[in-house]
Structure formats: structure tokens, C-alpha cells
Amino acid sequence: MKPAPFAYQAARSVDEAVALLDEHGSAAKVLAGGQSLMLDLHYRRTRPALLVDVNGVEELVGHGVDDGHLVLGALVRHADLERPVVDDPVGALLAHVAPYVAHPPIRARGTFAGSLAWAHPAAEWCAVAVALDAEIGLHGPSGRRVVAAAEWFHGPHRTDRTAQELVTEVRLPLLGAGTGIGFAEHRRTHGSFAFAAAVAAVGVAEGRVAWARIAMANAGPVPVRATTAERALAGQSVASCDGAVSEAGAAAAREADPRPEPHGSVEYRRHVLAVLVRRSLRQALGSAAAQVTRPPAGRG
After folding, report:
1. Does residue 197 contact residue 216 with C-beta atoms inside 8 Å?
2. Are the beta carbons of 169 and 146 closer than 8 angstroms?
3. What are the FAD-binding PCMH-type domain coordinates in residue numbering (predicted)?
């Protein structure tokens, strides 16, 4: 099939794009990376009257650090994150996760912000955003507003964004020294959506876990933050927390709300999630411990 007829307009500024969205409302769609949108157009799952192309909007390009946050413009591509974009564990985490996103041609065009706007339950970036308490910046007819990732996802392909608003940036808190990061995913083929995935960040101070952040992808209709699992790690000794890691994996599986699929029952999906949470936590604890034991530059 081919897309149904639609009008096309390339916006040159955020204000112009917002004006077009305000005028056309739900009849308009935003084209940034387009790696999901174009497929839906092709199969006529969506039939917009207008496509608003924002690829020429310079305000949406690039990344930087502001007030303790890594700020990703809405046109930052998946491939841009395959190498750390900031000297902080959050940069390492993004670089670790990026290769799991689809195939290289898709990573070359698709965007981080677009993944959050599309809100697929299996999307890796959505789980990262929830785990790290990201903030999504939007511009609309009434001006700018910011939505916490915990409030952003309303269901599969449903977010807090209104039809008149444009996602302009995503803000990820810097994690700081002493933070370990981990990510684990299971999928049937290299380019498949995640059957399940887990992302973890662990802050370590004086040999103990000061805090932990854990989120799971494809564990429910929205990314699932495993808060009970996080509490199971808090205060544990990094040197001897295997039991706490196992407890956290089991707790995360209970917090998940997976749906049955042709390749896995609910029980099996919970088992996989528990395994992935444990793997991601062991990675995170290992990378945090390595920072403590790493010799100073120029010695050893």
C-alpha cells in the first residue's frame, strides 16, 4: 500500500511548527526521524491531513549540559548517542543502550525524543527515561511546559503531549561519580523489538548502595519503574549483595504487568524480566566498583 494523500510543510522554527499544529490539531503529524511514522503512513494506519517536517528547525539540533542535566534536542538521532556525548555515567549508559535500537539505518534517522513521543512499550529509550527521571520539554500555543517521564506515558502510543504541542527536548539528570550503569535485553532476532529489557543505575558511597534506579521495557503497557526492587538494594554492601540482587529481580518481576505473547506466557515473561534485572544490576554494581578500585591516572 501507499500513504493516503496528505499535505506537507517544512517548518523553519519551533514557533512555525507549533502554529501549524495549533491550526490543524490531530489532523497533523510531526516528521522528525520518521522511522515509525513512515511505516504507519505506508500501511495507512494513520492518515494525517498534514505532515509537519521539523528537520530544518535549528533550535532542535544538538545536545548540551544545563543545570545538572544532559539536554538532548528533539533532533538528536539514536546514532548520535552510540558514543558518550557527556563525560558522565549517563553518557556511558546511552552509548551502551544505543546499539540495541533497531538497525543502523534506523538509528541514523530515528530520534531519542521521537522514541519517547511514539511511546512503544518495548522501546529501550522509554525505559531509560523512566529509570533516570527524565523530563520532556514541549512547546505549545500557551508556551513551554515540562513533563516528568513518570507522568509522560499514558499507554501504548499515548503520552501527555497534546496534538497542538511539539516535543523540543529531553533532559536527563547527570548521575555523577560513583554511579554504575547496566542494561540487559532479550529479543528474538537482532533487529526485533525487545521481548523484555531492564536498565539500572546504582549510586555507591562508602562501599554501600546509596540509591538504585531500575526500569523495565515491554513489562506492561508503559515502562515500569521497579521501586520495590530499588528499595531492596538501598544500603546493601556492594561487596556482598548477591542476595539483595536476587531479591530485587524477584521484586521487579512482581511489579511488572506483562501481557501474554505468542512467544511467551505471562509467567515466562516475568521470569525473563527477573533475570534481566539481575543482569543489569550486576553490570551496574560492577561498573561502580571499578570506579572505586581504578588506579589514579599515571599510576599502576
Report:
1. yes
2. no
3. 1-177
Asked if 199 contacts 93 with a C-beta cutoff of 8 angstroms, the reply is: yes
Neighbours of 200 (CB within 10 A): 33
What's domain 62-173's architecture? 2-Layer Sandwich (3.30)
- Per-residue pLDDT reduced to its tens digit, 131-150: 999 999 999 999 999 999 99
- Residue 134: is it exposed, middle or buried by C-beta count within 10 angstroms (0-12/13-18/19+)? buried
Distance CA 67, CA 226 (A): 27
32 vs 114: CA distance, rounded Å: 7
Whether this prediction's pTM lies above 0.90 is answered by yes
CATH architecture of 7-53: 2-Layer Sandwich (3.30)
| Element spanning 202, H or E | strand 196-205
The third-level CATH classification (topology) of the domain covering 179-293 is Enolase-like; domain 1 (3.30.390)
